[in-house]
Amino acid sequence: MDYTFHFGVLGTYWIWLAKGLWITIYISIISMFLALIIGLIISICRLSKIRFLVIFSQSYIEIFRGIPLFVFIIWLYYGLAMVSGINFEPVTAGIICLSMQHGGYLAEIYRAGIQAVSRGQWEASFTLGFSIINTFARIIFPQAVKIIIPPTANMFIGLFKDSALVSIIGVNELMRQSQIATSLTFRPFEFYTVTAIIYIVLTLFLSQIAKLLEFKMSNK
Predict the structure, then answer these.
(1) Which residues, including other chains, have CB under 8 Å from residue 18's CB and lie 6 or more apart?
(2) Ramachandran region of residue 165, left (φ > 0), alpha (ψ -120 to 50) or beta?
(3) Is residue 55 in a domain?
(4) pTM of the predicted protein model
(5) What is the CATH number of the domain that holds 109?
(6) Over the stretch 13-49, which tens digit does the pLDDT of each residue have?
(7) What is the per-residue pLDDT for 50?
């Protein structure tokens, strides 16, 4: 049987999609901000000469890159509550899971960018009397940022799409709102088509911003 599209049904529920989109953007931005901080801290630990910090950072990276995000969300929201009685709000649980997992990926991106800067620049800065912190903050990291930006931008796009998984714990982000509207109207393809288009448009927008940042950094 042929399926006939009736996009007019969106007129009644567009406000739902708009609210869901706002929550998706909110979760993605907060999660990426926290992931950037977590990734930087873990990468510094990974590059340190303190054995405990190295083991901790390696374990963090392997664990959070290895566990499926779907499983992580289920365990943090439902499992942790059953085992320890600790309860998180759905949005909070989603942000924690997204930021911790992507922080593990970003740690390796940071590490690769920092190690790509010539070791001689560390030695030269020490010769000039710079401390380790000043050397890192003023000389090494600004150069590493140029290398880090492209993969970090791709990571943000991936996180933006992964945010749809928080719908499994009842967060009314874009995908969840589409699911609810579909259950009420029995018009799945209209809502999921529009949802896919929204994701594509925003992904292209983020890609253009990343290219602009990369261009500006390369010309500094």
Answers:
(1) none
(2) alpha
(3) no
(4) 0.90
(5) 1.10.3720.10
(6) 999 999 999 999 999 999 999 999 999 999 999 999 8
(7) 92
Helix/strand/coil (H, E, C) string of the chain?
CCCCCCHHHHHHHHHHHHHHHHHHHHHHHHHHHHHHHHHHHHHHHHHCCCHHHHHHHHHHHHHHHHCCHHHHHHHHHHHHHHHHCCCCCHHHHHHHHHHHHHHHHHHHHHHHHHHHCCHHHHHHHHHCCCCHHHHHHHHHHHHHHHHHHHHHHHHHHHHHHHHHHHHHHCCCCHHHHHHHHHHHHCCHHHHHHHHHHHHHHHHHHHHHHHHHHHHHHHCC
- With respect to residue 39, please indicate whether it lies within any of the assigned structural domains: yes
Q: Domain count of the chain?
A: 1
Give the domain range for residue 189: 19-47+90-218
Residue 106 lies in a domain: yes
Residue-wise pLDDT tens digits, 52-104: 999 999 999 999 999 999 999 999 999 998 999 889 999 999 999 999 999 99
Kindly state whether residue 57 falls inside one of the protein's structural domains: no
Give phi and psi for 206, each to the nearest 5: -65, -35
